[in-house]
Amino acid sequence: MDGGAMRHTIFKTRWGYFGLVCQGQAVCRTSLPAASQTAARQSLLTGANLGPADVPFEKDLLAALQRRIVAYFEGENVDFSTDPAVCLPNLSVFGQAILAACRQIAFGRTQTYAQLAASAGRSQAARAVGNVMARNPVPLIVPCHRIIRADGGLGGFSGIGGTAMKQRMLLHERVSDRTVCLQD
DNA sequence: CAGCACTAATTCA
DNA sequence: TGAATTAGTGCTG
Asked: I need a surface site. Which of A1, A70, A123, A172 has the fewest CB within 10 A?
């Protein structure tokens, strides 16, 4: 059930060094912009039980996708909802359903944990959705930062930068839609 | 089994 | 009003 050797790359964006692991054409993991390549690599491979030896570096890996990610951090409205194929091993059916639903959320839009739970047929499973988001292997591709609390709060964020990164990304997408009075 | 990136309801100032 | 607490909740390691 694999489509080739796994490789990784790290490239510079306006916000920092973005990390990417893929297998064939399918993206397995991503890591949000970090201050250094070293930090990016650590964040990218940690938790995946992978060492740099397991996933050779390849500068121009998925070059087209790299350009789109760079563009995102330049402020462009980039849609990742369908394009990069993703490979999500070791994920429960529930987890996959939640991530799939989350991926549909458009640039600049948000949903609550409960709404996302409902879209997977588990309207009471908001907290479980939080579990899935916390372990999202492909942040940005699956826009887990667009999930906020029902009471208007930000909720948490486990990726690089924590909730500050989450808020920054939301502001970046100009979430003025409604809800989310980030701060007051 | 214990622990969560949650929520709605309840309980105080 | 509104902050703080309490159950209730479904999934994960």
From this structure: A1
